[in-house]
Design brief:
With 182 residues, the chain is mainly beta. Helices cover 4% and strands 56% of the residues. The two termini are 27 Å apart.
Length: 182
């Protein structure tokens, strides 16, 4: 495993350069992609011993954006995210494991609509850089698949041709740029 000790520190997600997205099958024939535009997150990184690293994330459910106002409005209702009652989706890591030189397996508690389940995301480390403003940055990408009905997000509609309007499986996508705190 490579030595990442110089990365040790506390990092804050940079919302301008981070994407927290998702995709779901629609009408069994295509994918709808979207993202959450408002979130906060921190990571305690220990480059010498990644197993003591941790991640926390809070996502504003009302910031869901699929580039379709009518669909976004429906996703905010009781049929899906119930944003008035459940304004946040949260994630808090329970373990971090370096599985390859550039892959970190992060397991933690994902809470959607007051339902908490353990999920695992393999994050590929894309490197560290000093940006033009003197900030130390790190980048990671990862994804995982969840079943939305496990979290009480059960709305669906049957199609005349068979199948359903929205897939149960939701692919969560993370493209992360984080800045080391001073």
């Amino acid at each position: 495993m490579s030595d990442l000790s110089e990365l040790t520190g506390t990092y804050t997600l940079d919302p301008a350069h981070t994407r927290i997205g998702f995709s779901a099958r629609h009408a069994m024939v295509t994918k709808v992609r979207g993202a959450f535009n408002e979130f906060t997150g921190t990571a305690q990184v220990n480059g010498s011993d990644p197993s003591v690293s941790s991640v926390e994330l809070a996502i504003a459910t009302g910031s869901i954006d699929t580039r379709n106002e009518q669909r976004d409005g429906h996703l905010r209702t009781n049929d899906f995210l119930e944003v008035e009652k459940f304004p946040e989706i949260t994630f808090k890591s329970t373990s971090v494991e370096q599985v390859k030189d550039d892959v970190f397996r992060v397991t933690g508690d994902l809470t959607i609509k007051d339902v908490t389940k353990s999920v695992t995301v393999d994050f590929e480390y894309h490197g560290a850089a000093k940006d033009p403003f003197g900030n130390s940055r790190i980048g990671f990408e990862g994804s995982t698949t969840i079943n939305r009905s496990d979290y009480g997000v059960n709305f669906n509609a049957a199609l005349e041709t068979g199948g359903v309007l929205v897939s149960e499986k939701i692919n969560l996508e993370f493209e992360v740029s984080a800045i080391k705190n001073a």
